[in-house]
Amino acid sequence: MGVGRVRPVVQGLAPYRPGKGAKQAEAEHGISDAIKLASNENPYAPPPSVLSAIRDAAAGVNRYSDHGASELRGKLSRWLGVGQDSVAVGCGSSGLLQQLCVAYVEPGDEVVSPWLSFEAYPLFVALMDGNFVKVPLTSSHRIDLDAVAAAVGPKTKLVMLATPNNPTGCALSTDDLASFMAKVSEDVLVVVDEAYREFSDPALGDPVGDLVGRFPNVVVTRTFSKAYGLAGLRSGYAIADPAIIEQLDKVLLAFSVNSLAQAGAIAALDALDEIQQLIDSLLAERARVVEALRNAGVALPDPQGNFVWIPIGDAADDVALALEQRGVVVRPFSGDGIRVTISTPAENDRFLATYAEVTA
Ligand SMILES: *Cc1c(COP(=O)(O)O)cnc(C)c1O
Predict the structure, then answer these.
(1) Ligand 1 proximity of 89 Cβ (cutoff 6 Å)
(2) What is the CA radius of gyration of the chain?
(3) Which of 29, 171, 218, 324 makes a 20 to 30 Å CA pair with 197?
(4) 3-state class percentages of the chain: helix first, strand second, coil last, to nearest 5
(5) Interior CA angle at 224 toward 262 and 68, to 5°?
(6) DSSP labels for 151-191?
């Protein structure tokens, strides 16, 4: 017994384990020049106009931010072609995912998700004393929507679908999602987590245009963290029926979308062409990395995010450690594989050479 009476669920949680930083790996292994390919960050700083908007906003940090993020909401709603009451802004999209759990999950309720998937989901569900129901991926690392639909029961409140999925990188089409929606009762919310949308094949469809509006129980979440290079500022958004947005807004921690995050996101929406160039260069690098790995005999699924998934099973921890000792920090998933973020050409070359070395 420690001080106070912590909730058993919190007592039992392991501390949150973010992707290991380069500095930490350097200290642990007594090396220098480590690179971090472990958190699916954008290796490129945002365009100068975005940085300058953030700097300008810094002068006003003595004031609280606009809690409702009204300017950003307005801009998002015009850009996406949905009503302003269909958009929520949160402290990163993970903030919005937690708000969904806070607003909808009672103790004992179920949240169904394919697994492997985003490691924050089970944490948010556990904090509500809910039950996280894991539905295995197919043998080709894809989400098995039939099995997910079959796992939805009377206690299910939410279904979490990351597309592209983290860590496996496979994506769902809106046709597949629409067939899935037809099998799920309207009193179950289906969360389509598109943190990596900007890196995926546009031919898969747009869940906002294709699903929200048609299905009142769909919630699409997106973020400025990955493609827009604003991970350190924390802003994300959700698009859904106004009745859902209203509940999400009630449980947003006051002012948690800080003023720099709002300014950066607004400026990013004015710099889409420049940001697209950075995305395009990452997509070209992704193709190059995949080809090099496949030429070396590595089997991996087609990636739709800014990372590759190497399903090496039981070798995951050993390979990740060997890479890390040589200064290349990737994200291991014990017993399943490693996830490697696509970065600059030089960092990708370093990963490829080091991976060849440790697996030789
Ligand atoms: C990175 C990530 C997020 C959220 O990132 P934020 O920085 O909180 O916006 C959400 N979902 C998935 C699947 C992710 O990988």
Answers:
(1) no
(2) 20
(3) 324
(4) 45, 15, 40
(5) 35
(6) H--TTEEEEEEESSPTTT-----HHHHHHHHHHS-TTSEEE
Cβ of 236 less than 6 Å from ligand 1: yes
Say if residues 206 and 217 touch (Cβ distance below 8 Å). Answer: no
CA distance 274 to 227: 11
Name the nearest CA neighbour of 340 among 165, 138, 167: 167
CA of 94 to the centre of ligand 1 (A): 6
pLDDT in tens, 85-136: 999 999 999 999 999 999 999 999 999 999 999 999 999 999 999 999 999 9
**Tokens 């900007």, located at residue:** 198
- Has this prediction a pTM greater than 0.90? yes
Q: What does the pLDDT look like over 166-214, one tens digit per residue? A: 999 999 999 999 999 999 999 999 999 999 999 999 999 999 999 999 9
Asked if residue 166 has its Cβ within 6 Å of ligand 1, the reply is yes
Q: List the helix and strand counts (H, then E) for the chain.
A: 14, 12
CA of 1 to the centre of ligand 1 (A): 34
Phi first, then psi, for residue 135 (nearest 5°) are -110, 120
Cα of 93 from ligand 1 centre, angstroms: 6
| CB of 118 sitting under 6 A from ligand 1 | yes
Q: Sheet with 110-115: list strands edge to edge.
A: 87-90, 236-240, 218-223, 189-193, 156-162, 110-115, 131-136
d(C-alpha 253, C-alpha 237), whole Å: 14
pLDDT tens digits along 10-65? 999 988 777 789 999 999 999 999 999 999 999 999 999 999 999 999 999 999 99
